[in-house]
Amino acid sequence: MASVPLWLYTTAGCHLCARLETTLQALGADVTLTRVEIAFETQLSERYATRIPVLASASGAEYSLADGEEMLPEWLRAQGVEQGVEIRPPAEHDSAAEPQGPTLRNGRRFLR
Predict the structure, then answer these.
(1) Fewer CB within a 10 Å sphere, N or C end of the chain?
(2) Is 109:59 a contact under the CB 8 Å cutoff?
(3) What is the pTM of this model?
C-alpha cells in the first residue's frame, strides 16, 4: 500500500505539533506529511489557532489532539494509513506489587 498524504496544520514553536509528529513516527505510520503554517493566513489561523496540531486527510477528515491521543491509531486506520506498531493501553497496576511508603530511585525519594 502507498504512503497516505496527510496535512499537519501547525505553527512555529508548537511543542504539541512536534509531539504529534513523534507519535506518528512511533506508530510507524506510513504517511507523507505536509506541514501547513497557519500563522500567515487569517482564515487558517481563525480555524486552527486553538486546535493545533490538526491532521487532515484528502477526504477532509480531521484529527486533533483534543480528540484524545488514544484515538489517533483508529483515526489513521480510518484514513487507510498502515501502522507498523500497535499502541496498547497500559496494563492495570497490581497495587500489591507496588512499594508502600517512601522509595528511593536514582538518588531521589518518592512518596507513595
Answers:
(1) N
(2) no
(3) 0.71
Q: 1-40, pLDDT tens digit by residue?
A: 579 999 999 999 999 999 999 999 999 999 999 999 999 9
Distances (CA, A) of 6 to 23, 64, 92: 14, 13, 34
Q: Which residues contact 36 (CB under 8 A, 6 or more apart)?
A: 7, 8, 9, 10, 44
3-state secondary structure the chain: CCCEEEEEEECCCCHHHHHHHHHHHHHCCCEEEEEEECCCCHHHHHHHCCCCCEEEECCCCEEEHHHCHHHHHHHHHHCCCCCCCCCCCCCCCCCCCCCCCCEEECCEEECC
Residue-range domains of the chain with CATH: 4-78 (3.40.30.10)
